[in-house]
Design brief:
Largest sheet of chain B: none
Number of helices of chain B: 1
Helix content of chain A: 25-40%
Radius of gyration of chain A: 21 Å
Shape of chain A: globular
Number of strands of chain B: 0
Mean pLDDT of chain A: 96
Oligomer: heterodimer
Order of helices and strands of chain A: HHHEHEHEEEHEHEEHEHEHHHEEEHHEEH
Shape of chain B: elongated
Strand order of the largest sheet of chain A: 1-3-2-6-8-7-14-15-11-9-10
Low-confidence stretches of chain A: none
Chain lengths: ~475, ~35
């Protein structure tokens, strides 16, 4: 049996280290699962990250991995690594609640989400489902039905959302990996607030099959982790065409882990100016620190970024409302009032302008692609401020007071609007971390991850271990 | 509509106005199934 410090070390180990230990036979997958389950039992009452823990399934899976190793079978690059998923991913045998009250009445899912299947194929072990903002229409990580997920760096503060449980579980050392979804910033915002790494890949790169949707034309899924290498390892295991997702790109996987060592040398990097120039002191400090470390002295203007954010806002409101229209008519009282009000208003968005927003999207994409002829990477803040207090309604943005729920994603929305790949990296400021977006051209996740890896290797970005 | 709904509707119209004001050529096609 491992002693207490060894157990603690295990909880903070990287996925890559755990997989290497299991593959070499120095640790059993079942030992890791038992330590993980014990830690969830001890810590999650404080963090409120999990909405379901799949104990029996995890133990069975771990035993099967240990038996496979004993009989000399290959285990996969994530052998024995525990992970959990935002509760909009289907888990066979559980209803996919998507943070809602209404979906709890759904039939249990018959089959796992595609990305769970892929991670398990790579040897990882699912340990549960994670808290999230209702129906993913959220940047706070608060949930009226399950309670707020809590920030491991300060329990009084938000995790950010809507993948709030994913952020809290990874940053709090409950699991080394989690999956989230990102329609307008829901991987990048909690990664920033919780101080971890998050990858929102190119739209169409990773399969959304058997996940509960929000805005089909904007929905992305992706991994969250405490190191760049873990993010890359996971991303590589997740890649591949899937006919069950109509947006899935039909092309070969492009593994990035073997490319990380190439670093940032020779890449043309600029800082996003104008709309993205931070008003908040922490965001400003974070972006400056990254720019100085990379030797970047060039600003670039992203044309019409504010309008892009407005167009994303409009499409989200309208498509989201369309998805929920029947439920809004029949079950309005069962929604979180804050979500219901946004969806109800979205149902009244003028169709002529929603169509125009889609046309503008094409125009904006073409303008952005022109920028990428001249630069390889654009840096921008991930959030306008570090994690707000739970229940906080507004924050100061320069001299403007803005609602938190709709505006924590003010810097992420114009980027996901056209599906660009982004790695959110954590700057370990004190007392709270904050994130920076590393943005690349479509399908160049490798470049964004290489820059993130360089920053991590140089000690500029890191997932800080909570002191509480 | 209650005050929360009205607040959000005003917010949507504020964003919609920014989209509305932008001149686009007639031949630009919308992208309902978007590919990056």
């Amino acid at each position: 049996m491992l002693d207490a410090p060894a157990l603690d070390d295990l909880a903070w180990s990287t996925a890559g280290h755990l997989a290497a230990e299991v593959t070499a036979g120095r640790l059993r997958a079942l030992e890791i699962v038992e330590v993980t389950l014990a830690r969830i039992r001890a810590r999650d009452p404080l963090l409120n990250s999990f909405t379901a823990v799949t104990e029996q399934r995890a133990r069975e899976r771990a035993r099967a991995l240990d038996e496979a190793r004993a009989s000399g079978k290959p285990l996969g690059p994530l052998a024995g690594v525990p992970f959990a998923v935002k509760n909009l991913f289907d888990i066979a045998g559980l209803p996919t609640i998507a943070g809602s009250k209404i979906n709890r009445e759904k039939e249990p899912a018959r089959r796992d989400a595609a990305l769970i299947e892929r991670l398990e194929h790579a040897g990882a072990v699912l340990v549960g489902a994670l808290n999230m903002g209702e129906y993913a229409y959220d940047f706070t990580g608060e949930n009226i039905h399950d309670g707020p997920s809590r920030n491991p760096h300060d329990f009084k503060r938000m995790t950010g959302g809507s993948s709030g449980g994913s952020g809290g579980a990874v940053a709090g050392g409950l699991v080394p990996l989690a999956l989230g979804s990102d329609t307008n910033g829901s991987i990048r915002v909690p990664s920033s607030c919780c101080g971890i790494f998050g990858l929102k890949p190119t739209y169409g790169r990773l399969s959304r099959a058997r996940t509960f949707p929000f805005v089909a034309s904007l929905d992305h899924v992706g991994p969250m982790a405490r190191s760049v290498k873990d993010l890359a390892l996971t991303y590589d295991a997740l890649q591949g065409f899937d006919p069950d997702d109509p947006a899935s790109i039909n092309g070969a996987a492009q593994p990035v882990t073997p490319l990380l060592w190439r670093g940032a040398a020779g890449l043309r990097i600029a800082v996003a100016g104008g709309y993205f120039k931070p008003c908040g002191a922490e965001a400003l400090q974070a972006i400056d620190r990254v720019a100085v470390a990379l030797g970047v002295d060039r600003d670039i203007d992203i044309p019409q970024a504010e309008r892009a954010r407005s167009a994303a806002f409009l499409i989200t409101a309208s498509e989201g409302a369309s998805l929920h229209l029947d439920r809004l008519r029949s079950r309005a009282k069962d929604y979180d009032p804050a979500v219901r009000d946004r969806l109800t208003a979205g149902a009244m968005a003028p169709a002529s302008l929603v169509v125009k927003a889609h046309k503008f999207r094409r125009w904006y994409r073409e303008e952005m692609l022109k920028l990428f002829a001249d630069v390889d990477v654009i840096l921008a803040p991930a959030t306008p401020c570090a994690a707000p207090l739970i229940g906080q309604q507004t924050f100061m943005f320069g001299d403007q007071e803005l609602p938190v729920r709709a505006n924590l994603g003010i810097y992420t929305q114009p980027i996901s609007f056209i599906g660009l790949p982004v790695v959110a990296v954590p700057i370990p400021l004190s007392p709270l971390p904050i994130g920076v977006q590393i943005i690349a051209a479509p399908w160049r996740e490798d470049i964004a991850l290489r820059v993130a890896y360089t920053l991590e290797t140089d000690g500029i970005v890191a997932a800080p271990r909570p002191t509480i | 509509m209650d005050s929360g709904g009205a607040f959000n509707l005003r917010l949507i119209f504020r964003h919609a106005k920014l989209v509305d004001e932008f001149p686009l050529a007639d031949d630009i096609k919308p992208a309902p199934v978007f590919h990056a």
